[in-house]
Amino acid sequence: MYELKLSPSILSADFGRLGEDIKTADQAGADYIHIDVMDGAFVPNISFGIPVIKSIRKCSDKVFDVHLMIEHPDQLIPEFAKAGADIIVVHAEACKHLHRTIQLIHSLGVKAGVALNPATPLSVLDYVLEDLDMILLMTVNPGFGGQSYIPAMTEKIRTLRHILEEKGLQTDIEIDGGVDTKNLRMVIEAGANVLVSGSKIFGGDIAENVHQFKAIMAEYTK
Ligand SMILES: O=C(CO)[C@@H](O)[C@H](O)COP(=O)(O)O
Ligand SMILES: [Fe+2]
């Protein structure tokens, strides 16, 4: 079993008290902090950018898992690294030269991940698999929190884990979108190990929600 990590997405936090919400998730047991950057071009929504990441870096020492939903990410990757990103995830659909982008991220001493939209086939990763620290499978169409998990993605997770194992790779599989306490076991059993959740963590009692997710995850470490 792969090490399971909970990565709460701050897209659903209260931006008026972002620092406090992050500290609450951190202290309740979040492993990573998932940071959704949207540019209004790659996705039909705008979230926040580099100055916000720099500022919230003071609120948590947890791994900053930065999910870039932006066009032309290469131009800004050095700035995201400087702002405190520990993992930078770019979308394959946004990168003309994906291999070069992965090299750029690694050259900055940061872990590199690639995200795939639900309709993007796994085969786009065929020639970069060995270079990746993490693969993010979108389980909703990117752009918004609070959407429903797309059922067909479970098979995609299972297929990816199988491909990685056949190659002897232990790459992290992150899944993002519509994850809740009801489908969490299903996605873990399919092979996901980095689990993003936004609305189901930051909507309501943050600490209690983190505890509920972590209690389910703990069933797999006994
Ligand atoms: O990247 C994205 C959306 O594009 C996500 O990280 C969402 O923020 C997840 O939110 P929920 O579906 O868990 O509410
Ligand atoms: Fe995300």
Taking the alpha carbons of the first and last residues, their distance comes to 11 Å
How many helices does DSSP assign? Answer: 8
- CATH-level-2 architecture: Alpha-Beta Barrel
> What is the top-level CATH class?
Alpha Beta
- Quick one: CATH superfamily? Aldolase class I
Domain count: the total is 1
How much helix is in the residues? Answer: 25-40%
Strand content: 15-25%
Low-confidence stretches: none
Gyration radius (Cα, Å) is 16 Å
CATH fold node name: TIM Barrel
Q: Sheet with the most strands?
A: 8 strands, parallel
SSE string, helices as H and strands as E: EHEHEHEHEEHEHEHH
Q: Give the names of the bound compounds.
A: 5-O-phosphono-D-xylulose, fe (ii) ion
Specify the overall morphology. globular
> Order of strands across the widest beta sheet?
1-8-7-6-5-4-3-2
Decide which structural class fits the backbone.
Answer: alpha/beta
Question: Could you tell me the number of beta strands?
Answer: 8
What is the arithmetic mean of pLDDT?
A: 98
Keywords: Carbohydrate metabolism, Cobalt, Isomerase, Manganese, Metal-binding, Zinc
EC number: 5.1.3.1
Protein name: Ribulose-phosphate 3-epimerase
Function: Catalyzes the reversible epimerization of D-ribulose 5-phosphate to D-xylulose 5-phosphate.
